[in-house]
Amino acid sequence: MKLQRFALRITLIIGLLSTIAQSIRFELESGHTKCIAEDIKSNSMTVGHYSIDNPNEGQPLPESHRITLRVTSAYGNSYHSSENVQSGQFAFQAVEAGDYMACFFAIDHQPPLKISVEFDWRSGVAAKDWSNVAKKDSVDAMEYELKKLADTITSIHEEMFYLREREREMQELNKVTNSRMAWLSVLSLFVCLSVAGMQIWHLKSFFEKKKLI
Predict the structure, then answer these.
(1) For the segment 91-133, what is each residue's pLDDT rounded down to a tens digit?
(2) How many CB atoms lie within 10 A of CB 114?
(3) Position 15 pLDDT exceeds 50
(4) HEC profile of 24-66
(5) C-alpha distance from residue 116 to each of 31, 49, 55, 102, 167 (Å)
(6) Residue 131: what are its φ and ψ, rounded to 5°?
(7) Which branch of life, at top level (predicted)?
(8) How far is 138 from 207, CA to CA, in rounded Å?
(9) 41 within 8 A of 158, measured Cβ to Cβ
């Protein structure tokens, strides 16, 4: 009984700690593009599955229901590209950290139509196929949950270091920005004082020429 409670607690902890991305479903209008961003840290594994929902169940998808997908990094490097497909998947290890973009494009069609797309994008520990791990290692339920918990904790630990690094970069950027703003304020004050001095000098010269002072 205690063993079952412990296993249940481990399962609940994993459910709370893991950052598993649930699959999403969205509508894409023909001739338009929709992009979805995912923040991925470097050296993380990421996998994605996408497919078009069949509006006519039991029948083949119409030829008009096709999409083009391109996955790029924050620096514009392409990691996956497929054209005029009805379903597909991708998997790669992120070399660069940052926001990765998955952009879907539906081919133009007259009259316009809407395509329902289902997209599942996972990264980090969520991208690991735990069912295959359990089958491969032939572990029992407890070892399986402990292994999953260990990988989840490792992923969270790495995520914390990644967030700290991003925070440090933002602090450095704020310091540089504040320093530049301070110098800009001093320069603006100097320009204003110089203009005011030139105006006073000009008015004084004008009044002296007119013998008003």
Answers:
(1) 888 888 889 999 999 988 788 888 899 999 988 766 666 455 4
(2) 13
(3) no
(4) EEEEEECCCEEEEEEEECCCCEEEEEEEECCCCCCCCCCCCCC
(5) 14, 14, 8, 16, 38
(6) -65, -40
(7) Eukaryota
(8) 100
(9) yes
Q: How far apart are CA 134 and CA 145, in angstroms?
A: 10
Residues written for the chain = 213
Single-letter residue type at 205: S
Sign of the alpha-carbon torsion through 129, 130, 134, 137: positive
Cβ pair 27, 115 in contact under 8 A: yes
| CB neighbours of residue 44 within 10 Å | 20
CB 153 within 8 A of CB 35: no
Average pLDDT, whole number, for the chain? 79
DSSP string, 175-203: HHHHHHHHHHHHHHHHHHHHHHHHHHHHH
The tokens describing 211, both together, are 């013998």
DSSP, collapsed to helix, strand or coil, labels residue 102 as: strand
Structure tokens at 38: 């995912």
Contact criterion met (CB below 8 Å) for 35 and 99:
no
Q: Are 56 and 85 in contact (CB under 8 A)?
A: no
Tokens of 69: 């997908």
Q: Which residues contact 26 (CB under 8 A, 6 or more apart)?
A: 34, 116, 117, 119
Sorting pLDDT into bands at 50, 70 and 90, what band is 208? Answer: confident
Residue 158 to residues 83, 152, 162, 187, Cα–Cα distance (Å): 35, 10, 6, 44
